[in-house]
Specification:
There is one protein chain. Strands 3, 7, 8, 9, 10, 11, 12, 21 and 24 form a 9-stranded mixed β-sheet that branches. The longest helix has 21 residues. The relative contact order is 0.14. A hairpin with a 5-residue loop joins strand 11 and strand 12. The protein contains 15 helices and 31 strands. The structure holds one RNA strand of 77 nucleotides.
Length: about 575
RNA sequence: CGGGGCGUAGCGCAGCCUGGUAGCGCGCUUGGUUUGGGACCAAGAUGCCGGAGGUUCAAAUCCUCUCGCCCCGACCA
């Protein structure tokens, strides 16, 4: 396309309200504009990149046997009430009423709608399996939209849903999607890693997130260099330790100590001159309205998701002062397991400790030499803490590493969570009614684009991998007022176009420097510079954005060269 | 929702403390000179100073309320 005809408003200044690089560059490169918090327009350049990603997704989904559909964004409350999520999903679900006062929501995801479709049209095992997907706008009323299109409220998502007759089939469907996802992100030119993840409000038994490695990522990832283990920090496990024998031989008698205004682990540690590893933190949580005591070693952090899962709680938060006072009989800072009258669960980290220091459930007092089984009972030991540097791999025991990542995709084994609640059933070979087994698979399209920029930029702007590039090549005549330069540029432009290349002709009456800066900013992989000195020798310059390397070519050869570079770079990933 | 910050020309900002005719850089328009990494000269245009109320002879500036946006914590593609 001719630059003069393009709507491509580039900017020189970094927008004051954009924090992350991808957001800054997407605005400066004229890809997006913010309408209001968490809601963006895509301008032509940005939308071209979106469509590139969508196309790669379509090809790989189709190849994996999924079929594209398009479901409504507006969804009736009844479906959500049926699945139980009308109440469970919370404020993120944007609800509204129509003129007849009926309740609706904007779809944040489509399990309900797809399950309804399938249950109405599928009656027999002969019609299974099925995998349907769509690329569609989702709305989630995020608590805090941020980082531009990376976490916004309205966003494009590819979501796929599989329905199988049995576990084995469901497993196969999951594997197919897992493979498709690896292909998609590889073809997008991303450095990524699939990790084990928590299922969150989508539910289900098992899930993997696809993480694009980036310092600015919101997620922490734990991985083992020896084996294949990789997990989201919130999911990362600690192996169950062996119970030591004969601990009771070292038990000392319990001792009460006055500890005025000593509340935190650091304060207790300093006051009693005991290392934090010997102190037990007793945290009172409010689990669906009931207090629960969670015990953990003083130097560790509780992973609330693990606690939530172990307790099977729908809502979990740290208890407020009132609940703590009621549960322990003391203000915050003096809770302990001994004598407490609520459920007590404990992290593995305290399983093999003896002569613990804990709160006394009495203001300004702590206890020494408290021992498990003798002085209090633990309902169950479980993995409840956040993995820390220095911990070992739960699979092979080797050291683990920490990195940051951006979640661009998530695959779930849903099981029968929705099919059961919404009665998606079929008749099997024996004429018996069975519940379908589901999986669901999401990719954030806009987020994938932003993540790609986070991995591919320099001081001058974006550096698109070829498969993502909005245009593959830009032809830059250094001065449009010289007819020779323009004629050659036009020729090359037309030839590139006619052999199917995506090309911009920068026909603006600007100085060369301005054009170079813009080409770099918007990240076009290849640039053909048509200038007077080289053209005198019948040559033009071909510059590669990624490496900064440039070479001279005969005007007659440059088109073929560009064509072969593009073909090679697209083939490399396909 | 809790904590912090910001709303002044299309973009980036100064002015506010100590009230007195709204400014700078970039961009934009016109003319001219330039032309291989964001040129130069000249002449211009552009503002409900986020909104409402108040104090005052006088408010971008002080006070009250409100709306919006960004950042840090509870979520997720």
């Amino acid at each position: 396309m001719r630059y003069l005809e393009m709507h491509l408003p580039t900017g020189r200044e970094v927008p004051s309200d954009a924090e992350v690089v991808s957001n800054q560059l997407m605005i400066r490169a004229g890809m997006i504009r913010k309408l209001t918090s968490g809601i963006y327009s895509y301008l032509p350049l940005g939308y071209r990149v979106i469509r590139k990603v969508e196309q790669i997704i379509r090809e790989e989904m189709n190849r994996a046997g999924a079929q594209e559909v398009h479901m409504p964004m507006v969804q009736p409350a009844e479906l959500w009430q049926e699945s139980g999520r009308w109440t469970y999903y919370g404020k993120e679900l944007l609800r509204f009423r129509d003129r007849n006062d009926r309740d609706y929501c904007l779809g944040p995801t489509h399990e309900e709608v797809i399950t309804d479709l399938i249950r109405n049209d599928i009656k027999t095992y002969r019609q299974l399996p099925r995998n349907l997907y769509q690329i569609q706008t989702k709305f989630r009323d995020e608590v805090r939209p941020r980082f531009g299109v990376m976490r916004c409220r309205e966003f494009g998502m590819k979501d796929a849903y599989s329905f199988d007759a049995d576990e084995a089939g469901a497993e196969k469907s999951y594997e197919k999607m897992f493979t498709a996802y690896k292909n998609i992100f590889r073809r997008c030119g991303l450095r990524f890693r699939p990790v084990e993840a928590d299922s969150g409000s989508i539910g289900g038994s098992f899930s993997h997130e696809f993480m694009v490695m980036a310092e600015s990522g919101e997620d922490a990832i734990v991985f083992c260099e020896k084996c294949n283990y990789a997990a989201n920090l919130e999911k990362a496990e600690i192996a169950r330790p062996q119970k030591s024998a004969g601990m009771e031989n070292n038990w000392q008698p319990v001792e009460s100590v006055e500890t005025p205004c000593v509340r935190t682990i650091e304060e207790v540690s300093a006051f009693l001159n005991v290392p934090p590893q010997q102190i037990v933190k007793t945290l009172i949580f409010n689990a669906d309205g009931k207090p629960v005591a969670v015990l953990i070693r003083g130097d560790h952090e509780v992973n609330e998701i693990k606690v939530k899962n172990v307790l099977g709680a729908a809502e979990l938060e740290l208890a407020d002062d009132e609940m703590i006072l009621k549960a322990t009989g003391a203000p915050r800072g003096f809770a302990g397991a001994m004598g407490i009258k609520v459920r007590v669960i404990a992290d593995y980290s305290i399983m093999n400790l003896v002569n613990l220091v804990t709160g006394a459930n009495k203001e300004d007092y702590h206890l020494r030499n408290v021992n498990i089984d003798r002085d209090f009972k633990v309902e169950s030991f479980a993995d409840l803490r956040v993995v820390q540097p220095g911990d070992s791999c739960p699979r092979c025991g080797a050291a683990i590493q920490f990195v940051r990542g951006i979640e661009v995709g998530h695959v779930f084994k849903l099981g029968t969570k929705y099919s059961k609640a919404m009665r998606a059933v079929y008749l099997d070979r024996d004429g018996k009614e069975k519940t379908m087994i589901m999986g669901c698979y999401g990719i954030g399209v806009g987020r994938t684009v932003a993540a790609c920029i986070e991995q591919n930029f320099d001081a001058n702007g974006i550096i698109w991998p070829m498969p993502m590039a909005p245009y593959q090549v830009i032809v830059t005549p250094v001065n449009i007022n010289e007819p020779d330069l323009m004629k050659t540029s036009e020729d090359i432009y037309k030839q590139l176009q006619s052999c199917g290349m995506e090309v911009i002709l920068d026909d603006r009456d600007e100085r060369a420097g301005v054009k170079f800066k813009d080409a770099d900013l918007i990240g076009i992989p290849l640039r053909i510079v048509v200038g007077p000195k080289n053209l005198k020798d019948g040559q033009v310059e071909l510059k590669v954005r990624k490496t900064g390397e440039s070479k001279l070519y005969k005007t007659g050869d440059v088109v073929r060269e560009v064509q072969s570079i593009i073909a090679a770079e697209l083939k490399e990933v396909s």
